[in-house]
Amino acid sequence: MKIELDALDTLFFRDGKPFTMQEETWADILFPPHPSTFYGALRSAWFANNPAELGKAETAQDETKKLQITGTHLFRDDSIFYSMPRDLVIPKEETDSDHALATPMQLQDITAHSSLAVSSLLPSLLFPEDEEKTYESPETGLMNRSDFERYLHGDMDALTAFNLSELISKDPKIGISRLGQMRTTAQGALYRIDMVRLEAKGGDFNSRLKFYLDFEGIDLPDEGFLKLGGEGKAVRYKKITSPAEPLAPANLSASNMFKIVLLTPAFFRQGWLPDFIAPDSLSYKVDGCFQLVAASLGKKMNIGGFDMKAKFPKPMLAAVPAGSVYYFKTNAEMDDEFAEKIIELFHNGNIMTENSEFQLFQKQGFGLSVVGGV
User: 368 and 269, same structural domain?
Assistant: First the structure.
């Protein structure tokens, strides 16, 4: 089922930092929210439409355990936005601009830039073509679907990176706790949070940002309302058919290299290293037919949550952020059969292995990936 979520008011999504009353006064926002936020909202919406099943929640008969998110995106005016791949950079002086032209980094042998022993390191590094200039890969960079698809197919000409600030605005909210029946203000309990409005300041309300979700395992009415975010704000949803076409696979058979790009954050037992890669050889664990040669990763994300049943915070786990890119090299020239195998394994799929302890996170939509050419 494919739905769009249209916010009726500001929304609040908080990061994983502690926000204890009378200890912390400022809560930092997180946007876009993690896939687990949508997973919880969809489960709650299903139970709201099936109240007789609520007693089965978190049991073997819980129907919502079949839920699996296969796509979660921002979109506006039928154009999907993706996290900007981390092997693209923009000039530092343009990082605060609404949009800028993105420049691809180039693969270079590590021995040309480091005197360290390379046996335990990746054999290649990524550098901007013009090393005299200062570049950055902004964490809030986004790319529209047409440019992202061109990027995956190796067309790097005039790729545009959008700043998230062009699509949303922040509305600060100040509050204070009140005491019991007296309703007097509590000392030291003043706080501030930033709410998110899904439109730029002075923007067109009819051209505001929306969420697009693709999921399976449960059914909802074709339209309705659900609660989303830290304050349970109402969001209108409706079933849609576009913009839902999967990204077209790149032609990999013309090269002996390919890359995998994360669409959503991913968890691995080996930290930043995908679980299908052997840490000693950096080769594919199954048959060694390809090897990891370079990676461009963002800053690790600490992802937790709150267990509503246990009424206790979930443990924080480190994740590789969306937009991170892994470069691989095959041991032989890639033919059509081999290329199809790579596409089947990782394109419009999940980079997190099925037998890992992170299976629930896979169902929530973490680890979604696509394959691109090099």
Answer: yes
As a whole number of angstroms, the distance between CA 88 and CA 126 comes to 10
Closest of 265, 259, 263 to residue 295, by C-alpha = 259
* Burial of 154 per CB tally in 10 Å (0-12, 13-18, 19+): middle
pLDDT digits (tens, 9 = 90+) for 168-203: 888 888 877 777 777 777 777 777 778 888 887 666
Q: What is the 3-state secondary structure (H, E, C) of 262-323?
A: ECCCECCCECCECCCECCCCCEECCCCCEEEEEEECCCCEEECCEECCCCEECCCEEEECCC
CA Rg value for the chain: 22
How far is it, in rounded angstroms, from Cα 309 to Cα 306?
Answer: 9
Structural domain contains residue 153:
no
Q: What CATH number is attached to the domain comprising 367?
A: 2.60.40.4350
Q: Distance between CA atoms of 125 and 127, rounded to whole angstroms?
A: 7
- Band (78; pLDDT cuts 50, 70, 90): confident
Q: Which domain holds residue 335?
A: 249-374
Cis status of the peptide bond prior to 313, with omega within 30 of 0: no
Assessment of whether the complete model's pTM goes beyond 0.70:
yes
Domain count, the chain: 2
In a domain, 112, yes or no: no
Are 135 and 91 within 8 A, CB to CB? yes
Q: How many CB atoms lie within 10 A of CB 345?
A: 16
pLDDT tens digit sequence for 89-104: 998 888 777 888 999 9
- The three-class DSSP label of residue 195 is strand
Element (H, E) at 103: strand 99-109
In contact, 267 and 352? CB cutoff 8 Å: yes
pLDDT cut 70: percent of the chain above it: 91
Rounded Cα distance, 193 and 368, in Å: 30
Contacts of 348 (CB under 8 A, 6+ apart): 246, 247, 249, 368, 370
Least Cα distance to 192 among 61, 317, 50, 19 occurs for 19
Write out the two tokens for 73. 């995106």
- Residues 258 and 222 occupy one common structural domain: no
